[in-house]
Amino acid sequence: MKSLICLAVAASLAQDALPVGELKQRMGNYFNAYVKDLEVLTNIDSGSGDVKGSKAVTDLLAAQLTASGGQVERLTNDKGTHLIVRFKGQGKKKLLLMAHTDTVFVAGDAAKRPFRVDAQQHAWGPGVGDDKATCLQLVYAMKLMKELNYKGYGELVLYFDAEEETGSDFGEQIITRLAKQADACLVMDTARPNWGIVAQRKGYATYQIDVKGISGHAGNAPHHSASATMELGHVITALYKLASPLPGDPHRFTEEALAKRHVPDRGQFIPANSINVGVVSTPNTKRNVIPDAASAVVEIRCFELAELKRLDKAIRAIKPKVQGTSISVKGQIVVGPEQKTPKVQQLIDTYKRVVKQAYGATVTEWLAGGISDGNVAAQYTPTIDALGVEEHDEHTAREWVDLTTVTPRTVSLVKFVQAVCER
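RESULT FIELD:
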Protein backbone atom coordinates (compact mmCIF):
# COMPACT_ATOMS: atom_id res chain seq x y z
CA MET A 1 0.00 0.00 0.00
CA LYS A 2 2.82 2.42 0.92
CA SER A 3 4.51 1.85 -2.41
CA LEU A 4 1.27 2.56 -4.26
CA ILE A 5 0.84 5.79 -2.31
CA CYS A 6 4.43 6.80 -3.07
CA LEU A 7 3.89 6.11 -6.76
CA ALA A 8 0.71 8.18 -6.73
CA VAL A 9 2.48 11.07 -5.03
CA ALA A 10 5.39 10.83 -7.44
CA ALA A 11 3.03 10.84 -10.41
CA SER A 12 1.24 13.86 -9.01
CA LEU A 13 4.51 15.74 -8.51
CA ALA A 14 5.71 14.77 -11.98
CA GLN A 15 2.60 16.20 -13.61
CA ASP A 16 3.59 19.55 -15.09
CA ALA A 17 0.99 22.27 -14.68
CA LEU A 18 2.64 24.21 -17.50
CA PRO A 19 3.73 21.72 -20.18
CA VAL A 20 6.20 23.26 -22.63
CA GLY A 21 4.47 21.88 -25.71
CA GLU A 22 1.16 23.35 -24.65
CA LEU A 23 2.76 26.72 -23.90
CA LYS A 24 4.49 26.82 -27.28
CA GLN A 25 1.26 26.00 -29.10
CA ARG A 26 -0.84 28.53 -27.21
CA MET A 27 1.72 31.32 -27.55
CA GLY A 28 2.07 30.49 -31.23
CA ASN A 29 -1.68 30.88 -31.59
CA TYR A 30 -1.44 34.24 -29.85
CA PHE A 31 1.39 35.53 -32.03
CA ASN A 32 -0.73 37.50 -34.52
CA ALA A 33 -2.69 39.10 -31.69
CA TYR A 34 0.58 39.99 -29.97
CA VAL A 35 1.86 41.73 -33.11
CA LYS A 36 -1.37 43.70 -33.48
CA ASP A 37 -1.16 44.80 -29.85
CA LEU A 38 2.48 45.78 -30.36
CA GLU A 39 1.47 47.91 -33.33
CA VAL A 40 -1.09 49.77 -31.22
CA LEU A 41 1.36 50.38 -28.36
CA THR A 42 4.24 51.42 -30.63
CA ASN A 43 2.08 53.94 -32.47
CA ILE A 44 1.32 55.74 -29.19
CA ASP A 45 3.95 58.34 -28.31
CA SER A 46 4.88 57.76 -24.67
CA GLY A 47 8.20 59.48 -24.16
CA SER A 48 9.24 60.18 -20.60
CA GLY A 49 7.00 62.96 -19.30
CA ASP A 50 4.28 62.47 -21.93
CA VAL A 51 1.34 62.28 -19.53
CA LYS A 52 -1.30 61.60 -22.19
CA GLY A 53 0.70 58.88 -23.91
CA SER A 54 1.68 57.29 -20.62
CA LYS A 55 -1.96 56.99 -19.60
CA ALA A 56 -2.99 55.58 -22.98
CA VAL A 57 -0.37 52.83 -22.90
CA THR A 58 -1.10 52.05 -19.26
CA ASP A 59 -4.84 51.81 -19.89
CA LEU A 60 -4.32 49.25 -22.65
CA LEU A 61 -2.01 47.12 -20.50
CA ALA A 62 -4.28 47.39 -17.48
CA ALA A 63 -7.35 46.26 -19.42
CA GLN A 64 -5.67 43.07 -20.64
CA LEU A 65 -4.09 42.26 -17.29
CA THR A 66 -7.39 42.80 -15.50
CA ALA A 67 -8.96 40.29 -17.90
CA SER A 68 -6.31 37.80 -16.76
CA GLY A 69 -7.29 38.28 -13.12
CA GLY A 70 -4.92 41.04 -12.05
CA GLN A 71 -5.71 43.67 -9.43
CA VAL A 72 -4.74 47.06 -10.83
CA GLU A 73 -3.28 50.03 -8.98
CA ARG A 74 -2.39 53.28 -10.75
CA LEU A 75 0.03 55.78 -9.22
CA THR A 76 0.20 59.09 -11.09
CA ASN A 77 2.42 62.13 -10.93
CA ASP A 78 3.10 65.04 -13.28
CA LYS A 79 5.23 62.80 -15.54
CA GLY A 80 2.95 59.85 -16.18
CA THR A 81 1.03 56.87 -14.86
CA HIS A 82 2.87 54.13 -12.99
CA LEU A 83 1.08 50.79 -13.02
CA ILE A 84 1.13 47.99 -10.44
CA VAL A 85 -0.81 44.79 -11.15
CA ARG A 86 -1.04 41.98 -8.59
CA PHE A 87 -1.87 38.33 -9.18
CA LYS A 88 -2.65 36.22 -6.12
CA GLY A 89 -1.73 32.54 -6.22
CA GLN A 90 -1.72 29.53 -3.94
CA GLY A 91 2.03 29.07 -3.47
CA LYS A 92 4.55 30.79 -1.24
CA LYS A 93 6.98 32.73 -3.43
CA LYS A 94 6.43 36.42 -4.18
CA LEU A 95 8.04 37.66 -7.38
CA LEU A 96 8.40 41.21 -8.70
CA LEU A 97 8.44 41.54 -12.51
CA MET A 98 9.33 44.98 -13.91
CA ALA A 99 9.03 46.66 -17.29
CA HIS A 100 8.61 50.29 -18.37
CA THR A 101 6.15 52.17 -20.56
CA ASP A 102 8.18 55.30 -21.34
CA THR A 103 10.53 55.71 -24.30
CA VAL A 104 13.32 58.14 -25.19
CA PHE A 105 11.37 59.50 -28.17
CA VAL A 106 9.32 62.69 -28.48
CA ALA A 107 5.74 63.40 -29.52
CA GLY A 108 5.32 63.01 -33.28
CA ASP A 109 7.97 60.31 -33.74
CA ALA A 110 5.34 57.55 -33.94
CA ALA A 111 3.62 59.38 -36.82
CA LYS A 112 6.95 59.85 -38.63
CA ARG A 113 8.08 56.24 -38.14
CA PRO A 114 4.96 54.14 -37.54
CA PHE A 115 5.12 50.47 -36.64
CA ARG A 116 6.05 48.10 -39.46
CA VAL A 117 7.18 44.50 -39.83
CA ASP A 118 9.65 43.46 -42.53
CA ALA A 119 10.17 40.13 -44.28
CA GLN A 120 12.66 38.99 -41.62
CA GLN A 121 10.02 39.33 -38.88
CA HIS A 122 11.73 42.41 -37.53
CA ALA A 123 9.36 44.99 -36.05
CA TRP A 124 10.31 48.66 -36.31
CA GLY A 125 9.12 51.84 -34.61
CA PRO A 126 9.97 54.22 -31.75
CA GLY A 127 10.17 52.27 -28.50
CA VAL A 128 9.07 49.05 -30.20
CA GLY A 129 11.59 46.99 -28.25
CA ASP A 130 12.55 49.27 -25.40
CA ASP A 131 10.25 48.47 -23.80
CA LYS A 132 6.85 47.96 -25.43
CA ALA A 133 7.44 44.47 -26.81
CA THR A 134 8.50 43.41 -23.34
CA CYS A 135 5.51 45.03 -21.64
CA LEU A 136 3.32 42.89 -23.88
CA GLN A 137 5.44 39.85 -23.11
CA LEU A 138 4.25 40.16 -19.50
CA VAL A 139 0.65 40.54 -20.66
CA TYR A 140 0.80 37.33 -22.69
CA ALA A 141 2.69 35.43 -20.00
CA MET A 142 -0.20 36.12 -17.64
CA LYS A 143 -2.71 35.05 -20.32
CA LEU A 144 -0.93 31.72 -20.60
CA MET A 145 -0.85 31.14 -16.85
CA LYS A 146 -4.54 32.02 -16.56
CA GLU A 147 -5.55 29.69 -19.39
CA LEU A 148 -3.65 26.81 -17.82
CA ASN A 149 -4.94 27.75 -14.36
CA TYR A 150 -1.44 28.02 -12.93
CA LYS A 151 -1.38 29.32 -9.33
CA GLY A 152 1.90 27.95 -8.07
CA TYR A 153 3.13 31.38 -6.99
CA GLY A 154 2.21 33.20 -3.80
CA GLU A 155 1.95 36.54 -5.59
CA LEU A 156 3.21 37.97 -8.86
CA VAL A 157 3.58 41.74 -8.77
CA LEU A 158 3.97 43.45 -12.15
CA TYR A 159 5.33 47.00 -12.10
CA PHE A 160 5.36 49.21 -15.20
CA ASP A 161 7.54 52.28 -14.64
CA ALA A 162 6.52 55.47 -16.44
CA GLU A 163 9.92 57.15 -15.88
CA GLU A 164 12.56 54.46 -16.30
CA GLU A 165 14.45 56.23 -19.06
CA THR A 166 15.03 59.36 -17.00
CA GLY A 167 14.83 57.85 -13.55
CA SER A 168 12.80 59.43 -10.78
CA ASP A 169 12.51 59.47 -7.01
CA PHE A 170 8.83 58.60 -7.48
CA GLY A 171 9.62 55.41 -9.37
CA GLU A 172 12.55 54.52 -7.12
CA GLN A 173 10.33 54.70 -4.05
CA ILE A 174 7.83 52.34 -5.67
CA ILE A 175 10.53 49.85 -6.66
CA THR A 176 12.11 49.99 -3.21
CA ARG A 177 8.79 49.25 -1.53
CA LEU A 178 7.95 46.38 -3.87
CA ALA A 179 11.44 44.87 -3.91
CA LYS A 180 11.61 44.73 -0.12
CA GLN A 181 8.52 42.53 -0.18
CA ALA A 182 9.71 40.19 -2.96
CA ASP A 183 11.66 36.93 -2.88
CA ALA A 184 13.22 37.81 -6.25
CA CYS A 185 12.95 40.36 -9.04
CA LEU A 186 12.78 39.61 -12.77
CA VAL A 187 13.64 42.65 -14.88
CA MET A 188 11.86 42.55 -18.22
CA ASP A 189 14.33 44.76 -20.03
CA THR A 190 15.27 44.05 -23.63
CA ALA A 191 17.33 40.90 -24.01
CA ARG A 192 20.79 40.51 -25.47
CA PRO A 193 21.17 38.52 -28.71
CA ASN A 194 21.26 34.72 -28.85
CA TRP A 195 19.59 34.02 -25.53
CA GLY A 196 21.68 36.63 -23.74
CA ILE A 197 20.69 37.93 -20.32
CA VAL A 198 22.35 40.54 -18.12
CA ALA A 199 24.00 38.87 -15.14
CA GLN A 200 25.64 42.02 -13.75
CA ARG A 201 25.08 45.76 -14.12
CA LYS A 202 27.27 48.56 -12.89
CA GLY A 203 26.16 50.99 -10.23
CA TYR A 204 27.28 54.59 -10.38
CA ALA A 205 28.30 57.68 -8.45
CA THR A 206 28.54 61.32 -9.54
CA TYR A 207 30.72 64.16 -8.28
CA GLN A 208 31.23 67.89 -8.73
CA ILE A 209 34.88 68.77 -8.11
CA ASP A 210 35.65 72.46 -7.63
CA VAL A 211 39.13 73.96 -7.48
CA LYS A 212 39.90 77.41 -6.11
CA GLY A 213 43.11 79.21 -6.98
CA ILE A 214 44.56 82.71 -7.04
CA SER A 215 44.07 84.89 -10.11
CA GLY A 216 46.85 86.94 -11.60
CA HIS A 217 48.57 88.23 -14.73
CA ALA A 218 49.98 85.29 -16.68
CA GLY A 219 53.22 87.16 -17.45
CA ASN A 220 53.88 89.43 -14.47
CA ALA A 221 52.30 87.52 -11.58
CA PRO A 222 52.66 83.73 -11.87
CA HIS A 223 54.85 83.72 -8.75
CA HIS A 224 52.04 85.05 -6.55
CA SER A 225 49.16 83.31 -8.36
CA ALA A 226 47.84 79.75 -8.27
CA SER A 227 46.28 78.22 -11.37
CA ALA A 228 43.00 76.43 -10.70
CA THR A 229 43.08 74.83 -14.15
CA MET A 230 46.58 73.48 -13.61
CA GLU A 231 45.43 71.92 -10.35
CA LEU A 232 42.32 70.51 -12.02
CA GLY A 233 44.64 68.85 -14.54
CA HIS A 234 46.44 67.10 -11.67
CA VAL A 235 43.08 66.02 -10.24
CA ILE A 236 41.96 64.56 -13.57
CA THR A 237 45.25 62.67 -13.87
CA ALA A 238 44.74 61.26 -10.38
CA LEU A 239 41.18 60.21 -11.26
CA TYR A 240 42.18 58.29 -14.35
CA LYS A 241 44.91 56.50 -12.41
CA LEU A 242 42.12 55.13 -10.20
CA ALA A 243 40.23 53.68 -13.17
CA SER A 244 40.59 50.12 -14.43
CA PRO A 245 42.80 49.86 -17.53
CA LEU A 246 41.06 49.72 -20.89
CA PRO A 247 41.65 46.67 -23.15
CA GLY A 248 43.53 48.58 -25.86
CA ASP A 249 42.96 50.51 -29.07
CA PRO A 250 39.23 51.46 -29.00
CA HIS A 251 38.97 50.87 -32.75
CA ARG A 252 39.60 47.16 -32.11
CA PHE A 253 36.69 46.81 -29.69
CA THR A 254 33.75 48.20 -31.62
CA GLU A 255 30.90 45.82 -32.44
CA GLU A 256 32.04 45.67 -36.07
CA ALA A 257 35.71 45.08 -35.21
CA LEU A 258 34.91 42.26 -32.80
CA ALA A 259 32.60 40.62 -35.34
CA LYS A 260 35.36 40.82 -37.97
CA ARG A 261 37.68 38.96 -35.57
CA HIS A 262 34.88 36.48 -34.73
CA VAL A 263 34.97 37.52 -31.08
CA PRO A 264 31.55 37.32 -29.38
CA ASP A 265 30.71 40.45 -27.44
CA ARG A 266 29.14 39.73 -24.05
CA GLY A 267 30.23 42.95 -22.40
CA GLN A 268 33.39 41.22 -21.20
CA PHE A 269 35.61 44.10 -22.31
CA ILE A 270 33.83 46.63 -20.09
CA PRO A 271 36.37 47.53 -17.38
CA ALA A 272 35.61 46.67 -13.76
CA ASN A 273 35.42 50.34 -12.90
CA SER A 274 35.27 53.31 -15.24
CA ILE A 275 35.77 56.99 -14.49
CA ASN A 276 34.54 59.65 -16.87
CA VAL A 277 35.36 63.33 -16.52
CA GLY A 278 32.40 64.44 -18.60
CA VAL A 279 32.49 68.22 -18.11
CA VAL A 280 35.46 70.53 -17.51
CA SER A 281 34.96 74.27 -17.10
CA THR A 282 36.37 77.54 -15.83
CA PRO A 283 34.76 80.99 -15.66
CA ASN A 284 37.97 82.48 -17.01
CA THR A 285 37.85 83.55 -20.67
CA LYS A 286 41.26 85.25 -21.09
CA ARG A 287 44.39 83.39 -22.12
CA ASN A 288 46.64 85.88 -20.29
CA VAL A 289 44.82 85.56 -16.97
CA ILE A 290 45.64 82.77 -14.52
CA PRO A 291 42.27 81.18 -13.59
CA ASP A 292 41.21 81.28 -9.96
CA ALA A 293 38.43 78.71 -10.42
CA ALA A 294 37.88 75.48 -12.33
CA SER A 295 35.53 72.53 -12.00
CA ALA A 296 34.79 69.07 -13.33
CA VAL A 297 31.70 66.86 -13.35
CA VAL A 298 32.65 63.22 -12.90
CA GLU A 299 30.81 59.92 -13.16
CA ILE A 300 32.07 56.60 -11.82
CA ARG A 301 30.62 53.17 -12.65
CA CYS A 302 31.54 49.86 -10.98
CA PHE A 303 30.32 46.27 -10.92
CA GLU A 304 30.96 45.96 -7.16
CA LEU A 305 29.54 48.14 -4.39
CA ALA A 306 32.78 47.78 -2.42
CA GLU A 307 34.66 49.29 -5.37
CA LEU A 308 32.24 52.23 -5.56
CA LYS A 309 32.85 52.88 -1.87
CA ARG A 310 36.63 52.57 -2.26
CA LEU A 311 36.69 55.08 -5.10
CA ASP A 312 34.37 57.42 -3.23
CA LYS A 313 36.89 57.50 -0.37
CA ALA A 314 39.85 57.90 -2.74
CA ILE A 315 38.30 60.85 -4.57
CA ARG A 316 37.60 62.69 -1.36
CA ALA A 317 41.21 62.11 -0.28
CA ILE A 318 42.84 63.78 -3.32
CA LYS A 319 45.16 66.58 -2.17
CA PRO A 320 46.21 69.61 -4.24
CA LYS A 321 49.62 69.64 -5.89
CA VAL A 322 49.64 73.32 -6.92
CA GLN A 323 50.45 75.44 -3.88
CA GLY A 324 47.79 78.03 -3.11
CA THR A 325 44.91 75.95 -4.50
CA SER A 326 42.18 74.04 -2.69
CA ILE A 327 39.82 71.24 -3.74
CA SER A 328 36.22 70.60 -2.73
CA VAL A 329 34.23 67.48 -3.65
CA LYS A 330 30.47 67.19 -3.66
CA GLY A 331 28.61 64.06 -4.71
CA GLN A 332 27.78 60.54 -3.74
CA ILE A 333 26.97 57.01 -4.80
CA VAL A 334 23.64 57.25 -6.64
CA VAL A 335 22.68 53.60 -6.97
CA GLY A 336 24.46 50.35 -6.29
CA PRO A 337 25.22 47.70 -8.92
CA GLU A 338 23.35 44.53 -9.78
CA GLN A 339 25.86 42.14 -8.28
CA LYS A 340 26.00 38.44 -9.06
CA THR A 341 25.52 37.10 -5.56
CA PRO A 342 25.11 33.35 -4.87
CA LYS A 343 21.32 33.80 -4.86
CA VAL A 344 21.45 35.65 -8.18
CA GLN A 345 23.60 32.85 -9.58
CA GLN A 346 20.88 30.39 -8.51
CA LEU A 347 18.35 32.39 -10.53
CA ILE A 348 20.66 32.47 -13.53
CA ASP A 349 21.30 28.73 -13.33
CA THR A 350 17.56 28.07 -13.08
CA TYR A 351 16.86 30.17 -16.16
CA LYS A 352 19.64 28.39 -18.06
CA ARG A 353 18.16 25.02 -17.15
CA VAL A 354 14.67 26.10 -18.23
CA VAL A 355 15.88 27.34 -21.62
CA LYS A 356 18.00 24.25 -22.20
CA GLN A 357 15.05 21.97 -21.43
CA ALA A 358 12.50 23.95 -23.45
CA TYR A 359 14.59 24.92 -26.48
CA GLY A 360 17.91 23.12 -26.25
CA ALA A 361 19.60 26.52 -26.24
CA THR A 362 22.48 27.91 -24.18
CA VAL A 363 21.93 31.15 -22.27
CA THR A 364 24.81 33.63 -22.37
CA GLU A 365 25.60 35.85 -19.40
CA TRP A 366 26.33 39.47 -20.31
CA LEU A 367 27.89 42.33 -18.39
CA ALA A 368 26.30 45.76 -18.74
CA GLY A 369 27.59 49.19 -17.87
CA GLY A 370 24.17 50.82 -18.19
CA ILE A 371 21.61 51.33 -15.45
CA SER A 372 18.11 49.86 -15.23
CA ASP A 373 15.36 49.70 -12.62
CA GLY A 374 16.99 46.43 -11.65
CA ASN A 375 19.78 48.39 -9.98
CA VAL A 376 17.32 49.69 -7.42
CA ALA A 377 15.60 46.34 -6.88
CA ALA A 378 18.95 44.54 -6.55
CA GLN A 379 19.74 46.46 -3.37
CA TYR A 380 16.88 44.61 -1.63
CA THR A 381 16.25 41.27 -3.39
CA PRO A 382 18.05 38.88 -5.79
CA THR A 383 17.59 40.31 -9.29
CA ILE A 384 18.01 38.86 -12.77
CA ASP A 385 17.91 41.20 -15.76
CA ALA A 386 17.12 41.38 -19.49
CA LEU A 387 14.55 38.60 -19.78
CA GLY A 388 12.56 40.41 -22.47
CA VAL A 389 12.41 39.86 -26.21
CA GLU A 390 15.55 40.50 -28.21
CA GLU A 391 16.05 44.01 -29.57
CA HIS A 392 18.71 45.96 -31.44
CA ASP A 393 19.77 49.62 -31.77
CA GLU A 394 17.61 50.88 -28.92
CA HIS A 395 17.35 54.65 -28.43
CA THR A 396 17.90 55.25 -32.14
CA ALA A 397 15.73 55.66 -35.23
CA ARG A 398 17.03 52.21 -36.27
CA GLU A 399 15.46 50.43 -33.28
CA TRP A 400 13.97 47.04 -34.09
CA VAL A 401 12.80 43.96 -32.24
CA ASP A 402 13.19 40.36 -33.36
CA LEU A 403 9.67 38.95 -33.40
CA THR A 404 11.00 35.40 -33.80
CA THR A 405 12.11 35.60 -30.15
CA VAL A 406 8.67 36.50 -28.78
CA THR A 407 7.34 32.97 -28.34
CA PRO A 408 10.59 31.38 -27.07
CA ARG A 409 11.26 34.19 -24.61
CA THR A 410 7.66 34.26 -23.33
CA VAL A 411 7.41 30.50 -22.93
CA SER A 412 10.77 30.50 -21.11
CA LEU A 413 9.61 33.32 -18.86
CA VAL A 414 6.51 31.36 -17.82
CA LYS A 415 8.55 28.22 -17.17
CA PHE A 416 11.12 30.27 -15.26
CA VAL A 417 8.42 31.73 -13.00
CA GLN A 418 7.19 28.19 -12.37
CA ALA A 419 10.70 26.88 -11.64
CA VAL A 420 11.49 29.70 -9.20
CA CYS A 421 8.16 29.41 -7.39
CA GLU A 422 8.31 25.63 -7.09
CA ARG A 423 12.03 25.30 -6.34
